[in-house]
């Protein structure tokens, strides 16, 4: 497989692709279609670049101009999408919607959009495996937390795109490198709250010292896998990081040109500074001086002898009278008439 997000599991029936303003993952859709095992239906509501895909097993639907209130021949996109699924040839089917936020805008209701997508999910599950519903969403989106819930699909593969500069930022500001260079618990404890703040990545890209645009050739994919192809939560939730390249597909993070600096940083051996250098006198000993020094007996009282334990003596107070002390045996109060 040229593009495999789940190398150790069977293919999930629901794949949620999540882009952001700082980094888009639209570039992986052509590779997903190229890797499809059966017929594929692609509905384009946002990105016109997907219309140029040419493959015998891919059927593309152009809904870019189907805008409510602006198109003379506007048709509810739900009708076209559901009809396309029902009339698709038998066998495995990949069904892609780009993007679900545009679909929700056309329907003008988040709840109605969720209900429609849930119906599509049921139709996809009724088809022969491996059939998939692939949804592309833009973060932040009110639909994302709803689609990621087990109520929509018990099994899920969620792919969140991040700019490589985010990992460089974490290594610089938080001194935390991606696994295996740092412990996973430490890395995810820092990475997750930072990555969920979208303004952090946007500042790295669009800020004063930013790149100005996300990298279309290389990006970092956060892959979250829940359950398996049958919808059973046998291993809970797995969260990993993968690199992605336009020319190579998925690749290890260490092989990404944007992140090679993180792996090529060799920790220099600490330099031992000689305190006796650059001084006007010599503090070093010659060989004869070191030999003479070694022959000097150490002034230890008990050297080479075993110290015997003495029994503890009873406590006593010894007092040496001072010359000014007036000590006598007479009664000091004898002159009192008592």
From TrEMBL:
It comes from the Eukaryota. It comes from Mycena rosella (Pink bonnet). Residues 322-338 have a biased composition (Acidic residues). One of its GO terms (molecular function) is tRNA binding. One of its GO terms (cellular component) is cytosol. InterPro entries: Elp5. It holds the Pfam family Elong_Iki1. This is Elongator complex protein 5. It is found in: Cytoplasm; Nucleus. Belongs to the ELP5 family. GO terms for biological process: tRNA wobble uridine modification. PANTHER family: ELONGATOR COMPLEX PROTEIN 5 (PTHR15641:SF1). Coiled coil: none annotated. Keywords: Cytoplasm, Nucleus, tRNA processing. Its main location: cytoplasm. Pathway: tRNA modification; 5-methoxycarbonylmethyl-2-thiouridine-tRNA biosynthesis. Residues 312-338 are annotated as: Disordered.
């Amino acid at each position: 497989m040229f593009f495999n997000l789940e190398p150790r599991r069977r293919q999930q029936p629901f794949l949620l692709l999540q882009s952001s303003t700082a980094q888009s993952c639209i570039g992986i859709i052509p590779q997903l279609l190229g890797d499809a095992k059966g017929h594929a239906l692609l509905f384009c509501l946002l990105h016109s670049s997907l219309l140029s895909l040419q493959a015998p097993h891919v059927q593309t639907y152009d809904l870019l101009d189907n805008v409510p209130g602006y198109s003379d021949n506007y048709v509810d996109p739900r009708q076209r999408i559901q009809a396309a699924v029902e009339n698709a040839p038998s066998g495995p089917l990949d069904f892609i919607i780009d993007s679900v936020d545009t679909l929700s805008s056309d329907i003008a209701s988040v709840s109605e959009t969720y209900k429609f997508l849930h119906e599509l999910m049921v139709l996809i599950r009724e088809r022969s495996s491996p059939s998939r519903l692939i949804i592309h969403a833009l973060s932040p989106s009110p639909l994302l937390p709803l689609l990621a819930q087990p109520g929509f699909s018990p099994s899920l593969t969620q792919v969140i795109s991040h700019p490589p500069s985010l990992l460089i930022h974490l290594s610089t500001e938080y001194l935390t490198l991606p696994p295996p260079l740092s412990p996973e618990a430490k890395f995810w404890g820092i990475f997750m709250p930072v990555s969920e703040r979208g303004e952090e990545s946007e500042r790295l890209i669009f800020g004063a010292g930013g790149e100005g645009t996300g990298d279309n050739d290389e990006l970092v994919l956060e892959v979250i896998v829940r359950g398996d192809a049958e919808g059973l939560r046998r291993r809970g939730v797995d969260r990993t990081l993968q690199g992605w390249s336009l020319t190579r597909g998925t690749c290890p993070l260490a092989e990404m040109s944007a992140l090679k600096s993180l792996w090529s940083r060799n920790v220099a051996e600490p330099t031992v500074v000689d305190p006796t250098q650059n001084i006007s006198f010599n503090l070093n000993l010659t060989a004869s001086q070191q030999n003479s020094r070694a022959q000097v007996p150490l002034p230890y009282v008990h050297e080479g002898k075993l110290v015997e334990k003495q029994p503890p003596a009873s406590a006593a107070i010894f007092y040496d009278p001072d010359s000014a002390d007036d000590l006598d045996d007479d009664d000091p109060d004898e002159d009192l008439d008592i």
